[in-house]
Structure formats: C-alpha cells, structure tokens
Amino acid sequence: MARLRVLLLTLAVLPDATLAEEQQGVRRHRHMRRQGPFQEFKSVPPNRFGTPQEGQEHSETVNLTMGSSKDTEGKVVSQWACALMCASRATQGCCSYQGELGVCEFQPGTPGTNATVPGWTQARCTPGYATAKCAPWEQGKCMGQAQPAAEGLAIWALLWEDHFDTDTCVLDGSGVLRPSPEFWSSEIGYKRGKELQWYQPENAECRNGELIITARRERQSWEKPEGSQCRVVGWEDKEQPLDNKSCGVCAPPYFQYYNPCDLVRQDDSGSAPACDCSQSAEFTSASLMTKGKKEFSYGLFELRAKIDTRPGAWSSWWAIGDFDFVPWPKNGQIDILDAFQHMLKASVTHAGESGLPSSAIQHAGARMLDRDWEKYYHTWQLEWDSDFIQIRVDGETLLKVDLKVADAVRTSWPNPFTRAKKFFLILNLAIGGHAGGDATLTEFPMELRVDYIRVFQKRGYTS
C-alpha cells in the first residue's frame, strides 16, 4: 500500500467553481498536494475495513509545527492571542497568560483567581452568540484544573479516493470507461422505495474525469411491450419454477418486494434478477455500491458533485451498515446527500425498540434550494467519530447527531454507529418513488455528475 499522505484540513469549504470555469473544463481538487515539511509519525495500522485494529488507540497527538525557532516554538506570542484562543471555546471560563513562558491556559466554569501569582494575568470569558469574549486583563492567575486554551485541529490521512479518471476507471468491451470494478458493483433491476427506474450498469460512465450517472426515459408509460412485461433469465430451479407470467409482479406499477423479484440469476451475471423487466422499463438509471469492496467506519467522507433536483430526480450518496445477519434498520443508515424536488436532506436512521422497519427512527435536517444552486458543483462532507455524526454542504452544517440517541439503553438494540463497525457506500440517481416526485413534469435525460469521492481517517491532532 502506498504511504498515506497526511493532510491538515480546516473543515470550511471554499466557494466552488463558477459556471464559466466548469464550461472551460477546469478540473480542480485533483490529487491533493501540500507544500512543507510535514513531520512523520507512527500511525495505528488500519484493518481491511479502514478502521483501527481492535484494542488499539484511535488517534494520537502529533506536533506539526513548521519553520519555528526553538525560542518561540509552542509559545503564545501575546496576551491578545491568548484571549482569542480562550474565546474560541465559546463557553464560560477563565483565561490565564504567562508572557515570559508564553503559556496560555483555560479553566471552564467560574473558578477563582489568585492575584499574588507573579508573572501571570487573567481575564474572565463570557459566551454569547456562539462565540465568547475574554476581558479585561488583570494581574493574577485563574485557579483550578488548567486546560489548553485551544484544542488542536484534527489531522486527516487520506485512506481512499476515486477521481473517476483513467487511473481507476476501466474500458468495457465497447470502449466506454466504466467505474472501477475494484471499488464499485452495479445494482441491476428495480430496488427500493417504489422507484420507477430499472438500474443497469450501462447508465454509469467515466467521462472527462467525472462519474456521470444518466437517467433516461426509455418509453412512455402507455407504450406497453408485446406479451409479458418481464422474462425469465438464468433460472432453472425445478423446486421454485418461474415463468414470464409469474415474473409480471416484478414490473412497476405492481412491483412487490418478495419472491420471485428478489431471486437472482444462476449464472455469472452477479446480482442480476432472474425476472428481467428491462425491456419494459419506462426509465433506466444506475446505482453503484462498494459493498464487500470498500467499507469504512469513523472518518471524514467527502464528495464533490453537481446534482439535478427537478421533479422526478432523486440523487443520493449514503452509507449502510454491513453486519452479518443484521437487517435494516438495526444495521443503521446515514444519508449524506439526499436531494429531491429542490430540497437537500441529510439523515441518520436506526432501529427503535421493536427493531422492525415500521418503527425505525430517523434524525434529519433539510434546506430548500434556489433555482441557480444546481448550476454549480458543491461539496458534501460526513464527519463521523464515536460520539457524533455531522453532515455539511459547502461547509454549512445540515445535520449533527449525538450518537447516544442510538444507544441500546434507548433502543434495545446495539448502536450500529459505534465501535468502528463497517459501512459501505451507495451512489445512485433514482426516479420517482417515495420522495422523487412526478417524473412526467420533467424533460429527460437527467444527470448526477460526481467529480470525486474521498475518505480520510483521523490520525491525531496538532499540539
């Protein structure tokens, strides 16, 4: 495995490319490189799911100070700088500064002060409007258990990325670049949410360094095929016979989520359904997943994409727990990008007390979009650790969930989002269904364009 690159990231996203840049074919965010002598460190080796080995610490403190003299390294340079660092905690407390040593400390709450301690000054910190102010400065030192005035920034190491270019995408038999089979599997058939599209790999291709998932209208709803809407392919099980007529329930609008629709072919087609309804599908699209190939837990997940939220379009990037014999919703679900009908949604779903799908609990946040928003590329991020899940769009928090909400004491089921359990990713463009809206109001084709996907693992904090 190539040596991981270490990236020091702030979690704000700069304004994205303009439409003019997009039209000029400007490709940004390619192969992150940072200049400067990053200090090496000993990292915890990840297991094959990208998470720390059992029984080992998840992160460690790393000193990334660069270019400082030994006389000033690690010192706070002034009383003003110390006040800013204490204020960054946005909570009530007491800030202490020792100028000769360059030490800055913070005591939360309402500690007392000792005015006789030589060389120290102190200031009270008062929170307000999601920030704080520490003033005025007086002689003395805050008393109590000292803490660093400001917490370190997280250090993220790149664990996996796909830029959907010739480095990862592969040519198929007709010379079209397709997503890497090392990373992605294509879903085939009708799947979830009473959606109208037939998923097939032909609707996903790599072009100009992007993944483009295209949803097409193949025929009008009144254009019924001759004979059966579905045909049996690759199935010769005498104990459970199938024919074209019995497969008819697998085609919309009568699609049912049970046998025979969930039977797959007895050949090398992978997960292709034995009841093939592709020739009668009104819409086709693509859905890709990393199940069994790239699975992750805690980390920072990032995707840059351009979406279509006109009626009928339902773009999604989500993560599902892949635990043996654990059905939904006990396995957990994280919807990072969920866009439909000019709205963005993010959510976290887990089991309720019964564990049944009918009692699933969802925590969600959403924003409405203006008409110009989807002309441009935007960046989605999921930050996930043992305590919380936070989902951001262009640096703005859309949802933050304390993972205690899914603890077994509240739900009667193990929390699927803790203990570094493995999740796989799904990337798809659905049509209609529970949330997508009325596709008859929109001109096709529709596209979901993805510039890149990156996954980072936390390796520690700056000092």
From TrEMBL:
InterPro entries: Beta-glucanase-like, ConA-like_dom_sf, Glycosyl_Hydrlase_16. It comes from the Eukaryota. Keywords: Signal. Residues 1-20 form the signal peptide. GO terms for molecular function: hydrolase activity, hydrolyzing O-glycosyl compounds. Residues 39-69 are annotated as: Disordered. Residues 233-461 form the GH16 domain. PROSITE patterns: GH16_2. GO terms for biological process: carbohydrate metabolic process. The keyword Phosphoprotein does not apply. Belongs to the glycosyl hydrolase 16 family. This is Beta-glucanase. It comes from Cladocopium goreaui.
